[in-house]
Amino acid sequence: MISYLQGKIILKKEKFVVLDVNGVGYKVFLSKKSILSLPEIGQEIKLHAFLDVKENALNLYGFSTYEELEFFETLNDIRGIGPKAAIELSSLGPLDKIKERILNQDEKLFSSIPGIGQKKAMTIILELTGKIKNISKEKTSEGDEIEDALLNLGFPKQKIKEVLSKVPKEIKDPQERIKEAFKILGK
User: Fold this and answer.
1) Mean predicted lDDT score pLDDT of the chain
2) CATH classification of 4-63, choosing from 1.20.1260.10, 3.30.1360.180, 2.40.50.140, 3.50.50.60?
């Protein structure tokens, strides 16, 4: 699986670029926003990539950040959205604003995407809302991860907060922080 490319732009079109990576030309589809922000032909760029494997084609989609790639993959997993719609969706604005509009169930977000009407937009928003919340939970702070782990083990929330406040701040590793919390809980 191709997940990252670094190379020189040898061709720029409306929906894709061709990158020369060590003598091999890769056609990489990009969002409109990404195409507009690219440097000139002959310049070197780095892209996170998604390889879409189909029966009769291999298509590469490129992203300037890993977060954009993750969001694209989340969109692409939803029934009714393929990679072409997902890449267009990812070009609608800053990622935080798109997520915010989806969480606010703003179906007008999709109005500029061909083939997505109001009914399909609402279906997609419902599916995305849960997925975006799950992604947000995965990216919570380290303290929240430790708190969640202790909650899952059955400790009361108030006790966990009390114990975590006693764990020395010098201990940075999450596993070591959990071990220290267990020591305090055992006293």
Assistant:
1) 81
2) 2.40.50.140
pTM: 0.64
Q: How far apart are CA 174 and CA 187, in angstroms?
A: 20
* Digit-coded pLDDT (tens) for 98-155: 778 777 777 777 777 777 777 777 777 777 776 665 554 444 445 567 777 777 677 7
What gap in Å lies between CA 27 and CA 24, rounded to an integer?
10
Query: How buried is residue 150: exposed, middle or buried, by Cβ count under 10 Å (0-12/13-18/19+)?
Result: buried
- Rounded CA-CA distance 138/109 in Å is 25
> Which amino acid, 158?
Q
Q: Which two tokens stand for residue 185?
A: 């809980």
